[in-house]
């Protein structure tokens, strides 16, 4: 019989997980009495006392950290609040949370693809993210957005799963088009409306800046005055024409008159025929996208823009390149709006944490925040 078993039998200890080393018996004074004390080692860390059911303090801290990880709080701040180290917070996160395996799930009928700024160790610092286009649930985050990597990733899904996908919403990123054609045989592509508006919006913005700079450098007082008006009211020029105020007149010091927002836009454009042509094209594309007017959009692509800057030609050429996908955009109501919202949450989390070094930690924290993990015991 071992000395451990002998001591257990002598003291009537029934716990099988207590171990006594040799020379574990000492005489000590305890509460004024000379006592024999056996010092043993418990081979596991209990969650609670079996007699009084009091929870071990470390477990309380762990569950408190687990709850805080779901909030938009930095790891350092959680460590400070719980009076533990930042490394301990990371250990708790990795110990209790595991990301769901996406390959054990079926893909939805509508997918949304996008990318976001990831950690430095990632190639080109951009990672791939996808979402369910109908339920707006986060599906997975992939470390690299490059085509070969994504092909290997999606090839792990069965052909039947990929064939079930009907629509995929993307931005104007050519590798996504190649990816979908190769791995999703039944899927139609949709260009996100925001990127269409963004493309033409930046083109008109650059045109207005060019015209404004030329006027401000002019020799005549009237030309410089026109340049100042274009610069001061640039937000109204970028604004959707239907959202301009046509009724309320306010004193405008630059014009020395009471004018509505629509009149403020009309007067500078009347003095800049070239800018007015670009403005009209910009507004027509905005209207076509908003009202899903396919004939108007295609008409915009065939207009004579020889008098406009070269950037308009580049933008319209891009639209013509993605015209089949844009036609689907004007037909269906799906967009990457919810995914862009999720990207903003990721940026906020990254900003509060002052960045992440490890992609796995970053991904796991995002998954915890959006309920795409399972909790281990």
Q: Would you kindly provide a written description of the structure presented here, covering whatever features stand out?
A:
- With 377 residues, this protein is an alpha+beta fold.
- The protein has three domains: 1-45, no CATH class; 102-192 and 336-375, Ribonuclease H-like superfamily/Ribonuclease H (Nucleotidyltransferase, domain 5, 2-Layer Sandwich); 194-331.
- It is 50% helix and 17% strand.
- The chain contains 17 helices and eleven strands.
- The strands form four sheets. The protein has a five-stranded mixed β-sheet, sandwiched between helices. Strands 1-2 form a two-stranded antiparallel sheet. It has a two-stranded antiparallel ribbon with strand order 3-11.
- A hairpin with a 5-residue loop joins strand 5 and strand 6.
- Helix 3 (75-82) crosses helix 4 and helix 8 packs antiparallel against helix 12.
- The protein is elongated.
Keywords:
Nucleotidyltransferase, domain 5, two-stranded antiparallel sheet, 377 residues, Transpos_ISL3, Transposase_DDE, elongated, 50% helix, alpha+beta, Transposase, 3 domains, 5-stranded mixed beta sheet, 11 strands
